[in-house]
Inverse folding.
């Protein structure tokens, strides 16, 4: 038998170590016997791995659990306060920042309006300021900083943490978001698009818990989707999976999208498109409520339309229904292709009214194959605006405890001060 190095687990033990840790930290198993049942590992191997995780301060052998007759089992728990994570979810028009423990619980959170088009320097400097504010607010932080997670409203090459040709983010193309934060905080940094982190959030602690095949659609200024496939986030070969906003749904050269192509879904049914359509209706005198919004602020927003619709304004209702039908038609194709058990609708526009969701639901059920919709659920996001920060924390922690990353920092006790981990290990 090989002598095990005390600081570095042998290659063959890492798989079982990660497996055991995942079961405990995701609250799927609370005792050694549950671990044996769930992982298929032997009792001896489970005992050894648990012992190692306790020794390394990642798991604790806490209170006695409920007895089922014999000696009550010791309850294992993940030491979520061994460290903390800083996350920022940058949207087109907002920034959400949070400090979480290693199980994704939010310790402190702040959000405010922002403009992604102001460019990376302005937006990321503001994120720094808000991070500092959150840290100052707490007298005692849970452990050291273990990692940083950033979401941005555009395509991201996950391996490098760089936005690639993002249509609504001028100045961000190829910007080294990871390097910038890694240098400042000396911690591993992961970057993904805002919809992927939202999907992770809903899947880990929102309406999608327990589902294995989920499509999470964000309808904000633009439209995008995050995909959970067979129990994991599907980022695709480069990290651009789910960019459904730029599927062509109309053959009309006069409707040009921000990406430069004609007829994109986003150009017809996204928040910016809705706002434009609402403003036109206001100017043409077709809706008094939208006219009032235009007079008051000089423009009409998607939120104004949702509000007007909630008061029964027929023009606003028709706009939301038309947008919902367009999104629903796209989703019907996705349902036929991917067969999810759940579609989650979130984002600022979807959050604000029922008409849009109703139209999406009706179109999806009418236009998808019966077998695909037999048990299909279409639900609104349950985490609302916080899905992004919760998901960004899950992204960081999942990556830190991935097989590729954990072998690089376990010998040190914690990943603090090791930004290179993220560069070496960004598993899709
Ligand atoms: Zn487009």
């Amino acid at each position: 038998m090989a002598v095990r190095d005390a600081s570095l687990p042998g290659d063959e033990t890492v798989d079982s170590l990660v497996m055991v840790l995942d079961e405990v930290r995701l609250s799927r198993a609370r005792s050694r016997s549950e671990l044996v049942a769930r992982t298929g590992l032997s009792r001896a191997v489970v005992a050894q791995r648990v012992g190692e995780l306790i020794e390394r301060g990642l798991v604790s052998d806490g209170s006695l659990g409920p007895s089922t007759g014999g000696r009550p089992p010791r309850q294992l728990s993940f030491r979520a306060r061994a460290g903390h994570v800083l996350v920022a979810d940058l949207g087109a028009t907002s920034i959400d920042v949070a400090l979480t423990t290693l199980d994704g619980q939010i310790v402190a959170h702040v959000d405010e309006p922002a403009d992604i088009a102001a460019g990376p320097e302005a937006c990321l400097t503001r994120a720094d300021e808000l991070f500092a504010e959150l840290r100052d607010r707490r007298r005692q932080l849970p452990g050291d900083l273990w990692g940083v997670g950033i979401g941005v409203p555009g395509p991201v090459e996950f391996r490098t943490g760089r936005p690639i040709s993002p249509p609504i983010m001028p100045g961000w193309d190829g910007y080294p978001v990871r390097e910038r934060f890694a240098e400042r905080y000396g911690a591993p940094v992961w970057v993904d698009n805002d919809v992927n982190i939202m999907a992770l959030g809903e899947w880990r602690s929102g309406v999608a818990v327990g589902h294995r095949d989920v499509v999470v659609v964000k309808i904000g200024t633009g439209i995008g989707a995050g995909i959970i496939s067979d129990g994991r986030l599907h980022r695709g070969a480069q990290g651009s999976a789910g960019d459904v906003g730029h599927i062509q749904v109309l053959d009309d050269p006069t409707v040009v999208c921000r990406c430069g192509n004609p007829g994109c879904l986003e150009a017809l049914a996204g928040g910016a498109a809705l706002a434009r359509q609402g403003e036109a209706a206001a100017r043409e005198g077709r809706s008094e409520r939208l006219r009032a919004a235009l007079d008051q602020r000089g423009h009409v927003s998607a939120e104004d339309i949702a509000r007007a619709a909630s008061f029964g304004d027929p023009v606003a209702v028709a706009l939301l229904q038309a947008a919902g039908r367009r999104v629903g038609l796209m989703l019907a194709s996705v349902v036929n292709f991917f067969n999810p058990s759940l579609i989650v609708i979130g984002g600022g526009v979807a959050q604000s009214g029922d008409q849009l969701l109703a139209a999406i639901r009706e179109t999806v059920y009418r236009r998808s194959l019966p077998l695909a919709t037999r048990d299909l659920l279409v639900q609104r996001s349950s985490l609302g605006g916080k899905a992004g920060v919760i998901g960004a924390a899950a992204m960081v922690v999942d990556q830190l405890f991935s097989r590729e990353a954990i072998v690089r920092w376990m010998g040190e006790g914690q990943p603090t001060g090791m930004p290179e981990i993220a560069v070496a290990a960004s598993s899709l």
Notes: Residues 279 and 299 are 7 Å apart (CA to CA). The radius of gyration is 23 Å. The longest strand covers residues 144-152.
